[in-house]
Amino acid sequence: MRHGKKINHLGRTASHRAAMLSNMASSLIIHKRIVTTVAKAKALRVYVEPIITRSKDASTHNYRTAFSYLKDKEAVTELFTVVGGKVANRAGGYTRILKTGNRAGDNAEMAMIELVDFNEFFEGFNADKKKSSTRRSRRGGASATAKTSAPKAVVADAVVEEVVAEEAVVEEVSAPAVEAVAETAVEEVSTVAEDAPASEETPTTDASSEEETK
Predict the structure, then answer these.
(1) Which of 1, 45, 48, 89 could form a disulfide linkage to 25, CB 3.0–4.6 angstroms apart?
(2) Of the candidates 108, 111, 99, 100, which has an alpha carbon nearest to the alpha carbon of residue 24?
(3) What is the DSSP string of 8-65?
């Protein structure tokens, strides 16, 4: 039983485990991502993130401390020249573990561990998401009000001018049009009144002629 044992020994002695994690940390810093088992990736994350934190301050003490863990001059140079400037604004969580399935030989659970700030795909995706996302709020600052008020005022003035012009044209055209319509209606009524008796007499004459024929 392994009660109270918080460290995963990974089936190795302390010296072997330290050497393995040192090599893996150097490879991660140089290549920015490596593929390993999930257990090793979790152990590597605990091992390498304090070293990455030291890269934010390029002092002699931090150089020597990082070299004591990594034991690789190329990895230390890459850590303080490239990685340190990239993670300067990040408070922690420099690595990401992505599970990739099980290994074919022994069915071990595999994963890819990478440095978060060096994944260009996720950076582009987050940037597009931030650009596309919009937020509507009734609370607007003075700057937003100043930007939007001027165009709305111009549009409102233009609409009012168009409405006034249309009303003036309607007033000018409406009086003659009403008079013409009234005259036409009177003429139609008079013609209907003149034709009404003739239309009424026609059925009576037809009825009398039918009676004579009978």
Answers:
(1) 48
(2) 111
(3) --TTS-HHHHHHHHHHHHHHHHHHSEEEEEHHHHHHHHHHHHHHHHHTTS--HHHHHH
Residue 194 or 77, more confident: 77
Distance of CA 86 to the CA centre of its chain: 25
SS3 110: strand
Report residue 159 as tokens: 């609409």
Q: Confidence band (pLDDT; 50, 70, 90) for 149? A: very low
How would you class 119 by CB atoms within 10 Å of its CB: exposed for 0-12, middle for 13-18, buried for 19 or more?
Answer: middle
- On whether the CB atoms of residues 51 and 79 are closer than 8 A, the answer is yes
Q: Report the Cα–Cα distance between both ends of the chain, in Å, rounded.
A: 130
CATH annotation of 14-121:
3.90.1030.10
Q: Tell me, what amino acid is at 196?
A: A
- Provide the b/e sequence for 56-91 (b: ≥16 CB within 10 Å): eeeeeebbeebbebbebeebbebbbebbbebbeeee
Q: Which residues pair with 111 in a beta bridge?
A: 36, 99
Mean pLDDT along residues 24-43? 96
- For 77-108, the DSSP string reads HHIIIIIHHHTTT--S--EEEEEEEE-TTT-P
The 10 Å CB-count burial string (b at 16+, else e) for 42-55 is: ebbbebbeebbbbb
Domain ranges within the chain, ordered by starting residue: 14-121, 143-199
Q: What is the pTM of this model?
A: 0.57
